[in-house]
């Protein structure tokens, strides 16, 4: 009986222990109130502890991609239609490289055989309008129909076909009506430049040097880059080294210009990327070399 009575005794056995327990209880309450007041009176931080919901952060996320260092395109400039390889690398490769969603892989003659039998017009029509899991224009509505057709030709010609790449329609040259010359030969007026005597030309103008071949090559290289190469080399598509990226270009430059020329003209299959011959463009070998020189100079 004595043991059972002791088991039910309280932990507080003396008045001193009771005072200590009550004081500790009130101390815990006071500390809790202080912490709660401190939490409530602090300045709240937006975005759950981050600046993600501030106006500046939201504006940065909504800023156009062109503002992040990509090449800006003048909306008023005449559009340059991309070559088939460039369209393929930027749009079609996502499915036709891996066969995603049942897309026939480029180079798989067996997978393309039944499709090629439908003919060029049907293939282009399906690529433009879409069919089954194939979205219209490969999911890129900004593509021109000729660009889509060029991509179709690029893929099919690597898979057993021999289609001819469509060319952009040429704009009609403006007709310039020349007014008939009715003035007498001895009428007063400015002398045409072609009839002016040679001795009348200033000596400095006669001695002005013509633009050298290096300047012309640089201009043609930049033009080819802007019309074909930039599709991959501006954003690093298919592991292409970006224009001006010295780290990415250093190992390639170390191979020598002859190797770079050969890879650019004939194409090159790397471990993580692919370079189509001449970037998928119908450019001449000289223009391709000029484009290589332009990109190499930008990386030095």
Q: What is the typical, i.e. mean, pLDDT? A: 75
Helical/strand content category: mainly alpha
Strand order of the largest sheet: 1-2
Number of strands: 2
Predict the CATH topology of the domain at 213-298: Cytochrome Bc1 Complex, Chain D, domain 2
Write out the CATH superfamily name of the domain at 213-298: Cytochrome c-like domain
Class of the domain at 213-298, according to the CATH hierarchy? Mainly Alpha
- At CATH's second level, what is the architecture of the domain at 213-298? Orthogonal Bundle
Total helices: the number is 13
- List unreliable stretches of 5+ residues: 175-210
Spell the H/E element sequence: HHHHHHHHHHHHEEH
C-alpha termini separation = 98 Å
Fraction of helical residues? 40-55%
Profile the largest sheet: 2 strands, antiparallel
Shape summary = elongated
Which value, in Å, is the CA radius of gyration? Answer: 37 Å
Report the β-strand fraction as a percent range. Answer: under 5%
Account of the protein in words:
There is one protein chain. This protein has 300 residues and is mainly α. Among the domains are: 13-41; 84-157, Cytochrome Bc1 Complex, Chain D, domain 2, CATH 1.10.760; 213-298, Cytochrome Bc1 Complex, Chain D, domain 2, CATH 1.10.760. It has 13 helices and two strands. The protein has helices at residues 2-7, 15-41, 46-49, 55-62, 84-96, 109-116, 120-129, 145-157, 203-207, 213-233, 246-254, 257-266, 285-298, and strands at 268-269, 274-275. The protein has a two-stranded antiparallel ribbon with strand order 1-2. Helix 5 (84-96) crosses helix 8 (145-157) and helix 7 packs across helix 8 (145-157). Residues 175-210 have low confidence and may be disordered.
């Amino acid at each position: 009986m004595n043991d059972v009575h002791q088991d039910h005794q309280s932990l507080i056995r003396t008045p001193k222990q009771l005072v200590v327990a009550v004081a500790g209880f009130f101390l815990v309450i006071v500390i809790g109130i202080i912490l709660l007041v401190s939490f409530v009176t602090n300045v709240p931080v937006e975005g759950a502890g981050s600046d993600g919901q501030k106006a500046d952060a939201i504006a940065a996320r909504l800023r156009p991609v062109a503002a992040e260092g990509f090449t800006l395109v003048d909306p008023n400039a005449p559009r340059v239609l991309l070559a088939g390889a460039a369209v393929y690398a930027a749009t079609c490769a996502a499915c036709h490289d891996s066969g995603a969603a049942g897309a026939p892989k480029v180079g798989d003659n067996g997978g393309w055989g039944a499709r090629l039998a439908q003919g060029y017009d049907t293939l282009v029509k399906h690529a433009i309008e879409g069919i089954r899991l194939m979205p219209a224009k490969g999911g890129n509505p900004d593509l021109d129909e000729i660009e889509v057709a060029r991509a179709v030709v690029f893929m099919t010609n690597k898979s057993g076909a021999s289609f001819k790449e469509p060319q952009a329609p040429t704009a009609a040259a403006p007709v310039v009506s020349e007014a008939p010359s009715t003035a007498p030969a001895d009428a007063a007026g400015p002398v045409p430049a072609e009839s002016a005597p040679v001795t009348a030309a200033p000596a400095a103008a006669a001695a002005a040097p013509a633009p050298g071949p290096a300047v012309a090559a640089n201009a043609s290289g930049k033009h080819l880059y802007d019309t074909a190469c930039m599709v991959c080399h501006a954003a690093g598509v298919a592991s292409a080294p970006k224009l001006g990226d010295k780290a990415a270009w250093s190992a390639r430059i170390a191979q020598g210009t002859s190797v770079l020329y050969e890879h650019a003209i004939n194409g090159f299959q790397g471990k993580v990327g692919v370079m189509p011959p001449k970037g998928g463009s119908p450019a001449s070998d000289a223009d391709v070399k000029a484009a290589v020189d332009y990109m190499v100079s930008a990386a030095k």
